[in-house]
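FAQ: What does the model actually see?

It sees only this:
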Amino acid sequence: MATPNSLLWAVDIFGRVYTLSTAGQYWELCKDRQLEFKRVSAIKHCCWGIACDHQVYAYVFSSDVPIRYQEETYENQRWNPVGGFCEKLMPSDRWQWSNVSGLKHQQLDSFTLPSPHWEWESDWYVDENIGGEPTEKGGWTYAIDFPATYTKDKKWNSCVRRRRWIRYRRYKSRDTWAKITSHDDPNQLPDPFNDISIGGWEITDEPMGRLSVWAVSLQGRVWYREDVCHHNPEGSWWSLIATPGEAVQISCGPYDLLWATLWEGQAIVREGIDRNNPQGISWTIVEPPSSENGILHISVGVNVVWAVTKDRKVWFRRGVNSHNPCGTSWIEMVGEMMMVNVGLNDQVWGIGCEDRAVYFRQGVTPSELSGKTWKAIVSGRESDRSQTGSSTSLLSAGCFFSDDVREQMNLIVQSDADISSDTESPQIHPNLDDMPLSGAAASVNGNSVGSQSAEVSANLAVDPLDSTPEEASPASDNGEKAGLEKPKSSADQDPHPAELQWTNIDLKEAHKKPLLAASTFPETSSLSSLGMFSVGVEEHYGADEHPLWAWVCGGGCLVDSHSLLKWFTLQSGLLSSVQSLSLSISPAQTAAWRKQIFQQLSERTKRELENFRHYEQAIEQSVWVKTGTLQWWRSWKPHKWTDVRVALEQFTGNDGMRDSILFIYYMYHEEKKYIHVFLNEVTILVEVLNDAKHSFALYTPERTKQRWPIRLAATTEQEMHDWLALLSMSCCESRRIQGPPSHQAIWSVTCKGDVFVSEPSPELEAAPHLMPCDQMFWRQIGGHLRLIECNSHGIVWGIGYDHTAWVYTGGYGGGFIQGLASSADNIYMQSDVKCVYIYENQRWNPVTGYSNRGLPTDRYMWSDASGLQECTKVNTKPPSPQWSWVSDWYIDFNISGGTDREGWQYAADFPASYHGHKTMKDFVRRRRWAREHHGFTWEQISPSCRSRLGHSTKSGLLPEMALPSTGVQCLQKNLQAIVGTISLHLQNKN
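And it is asked to produce this:
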């Protein structure tokens, strides 16, 4: 059964376990058909279940790597003068056979198999290797005494020795149901179990292969299976976990979510689950959605919780995550279910209340965890490939017709062949299983199949097994109760098919919180069917009937938006059976029914909407969240980097504007806490140069006053740039800033060459409300400059560190913020080169001559030009993360005063006047090392167009600012405006 495709597990009403592959189309019966199960809980590599005898079984898939466990024990000996090394030890020594520490007595015959599902691979043998190196013959290692450091070589003072014995056992019960026994009493469990759930394999930083297994007994007690891991798939023993009440059912997610239901109808949530304490710390009680109907069933995933109450309503829990496992509020969903189950990727499956079919929740995405609609799985069983049945075919279609309308359904199928099964249309066609579950009331054979809906939907329900109009009369009566009149029989039918009389299809509205359910988690507004054929639990179904399911589990089923599932398409045999029963409905009748239904729906829509047009239009509010893992520099002692989880929550208000909040969740004294930052208060985002971290800082007015910004670090430079770009864009959206800088923008350059721009607000210079400069928002623009000048006409000039002139082209982005599609043409690569200088200092002494050992009062032997700051080749970094080295360190001979052949300059002492030749009075010397680095929008000015604007400097370089012909004309028109240029230089202190 090992397959690269993931599996959906299900149990039918007879206790048989089936699996459905994501690449398959049929349910396959699991092995061990003699066992009957009540519940199963599965992940990718194993499945746990409770059989009808209340015993627990585990099903482990086979793989290429066997499950092996190494048992070991140590043989210890001591030397005595008479017989040498022997088994006689001193009374204070360890046992002759013990574990590695010597504290536990372990003889070879004391090891037994933990359960019948294990077998020994071989007999005991001596391990003749120590630390990967072979030992002397016999595998002995020697030491002075117990305990000590053992070596493979025997020495004159080696008084004790030991060797390790090894034996392997293999887990043999794979691809079969293995009974989980108890060590206390192998014949019975601590309590008869009623529910089981497995999960917790994705808990942060926990050992690979560890699994959390939770169970609930018939007496309402919760149990936890200890030590379930890869080399021990059946665990060791059951631990009782105290609960605030009697539990009924439990659900465990892949991470640290664990919910359970109580007999009273509340839910309890386990707090404090982590890698060090997988059992958690305490319980928190969550009240049910309504006091009248408590919670009957619960299921959790990564960030979702679904529940079914005692009235079979389905509920979604909003705001659930690992930092807030209790969530915030309940939202009622459409449909009535026996149970629901959350699988991987937070996908959801459920079992219908009346039809006992398996439904899949479509439209579940990370941005819309509640999904959009339920869709029935129409896959048959493996044994039904060569068999077809009318019941299954009609069920797959989602609606039923009696004898007088079955005969010509083939014509409807042919007429609807061009209509997509996923298309939402007011027209009625046989393939209705693609539409969402309806809440409209219907009945089949006197059994209620309806539920309450939050959207416009309808059910068509008539008896599929009627052979005569007289036998169909009870269904007709029930149909009238549901607001639907059955068509007349062929004997009493009107000769004009277009004049068939149908009563109004009265659709119920949601009775509780309709606006919230419709605006936040809308269901598709269309005709739909929940009323399938209802078969009692006691009735056995044959090969031509659809399976009736009692339990479904998708914990090991991986479904995403790219998965191509074959679960919802009718098999060819079933389609032919539908066509064979569709011989009595003419195209004219079909067209008349469609027209009449469309008119009734139009009248109902008009009636429902006209009376409420004076109400204020609801405005949809959307929330977008991005989460990730970073490191945070803690702002209190001891200052250190701490692993945190961050979440950027961006929400759109009623005015259409976007605001964002950055949450940082951390652990403090085993308690989860968080800090938050409103991005409309952030004044600047800057990268911070760090040797070992890719870090950046967020400044707010308050944190600027405290001189303590929020510092975060990512694992890679690309991740840091992604977060910087996202946070910068969110800050701009929160402050209503879009596109390139305006003509009134204030430009600035930091001491490290990074370019920032700020948009002035009306409050900046307003006399009554002066804005402090620390509240100005600065956003980064790509490029590296030493000087920058701008004017009110939007002309911005800059000079690089290599004295090259640059002009701003008006593009938006650059650097870590990529240009938008509308302005990508104006972003160019900038190349700027700058040299960094350090000095190597030496002092002369009579023994060794010049050396790097100076006097205590001397400067550093590697320093800057002043000698006050130590600068070595290793710790000297580029001034900003935007720069990178382009050369190695080299000796700079071009220095004032000249140098000798090796680049040294000599002087009488530090500091003094240096010269390039050695004299008798020169006791110190230095030489300068240089290294070039460059940074990478801005557009370089053509060197051929340089004009008289440049002037000479002492070093002979020209910091020229020359313009092309168009630039000269533009500059001449705006010479007087340039006088009002603003140039700001930020001093950035790390």
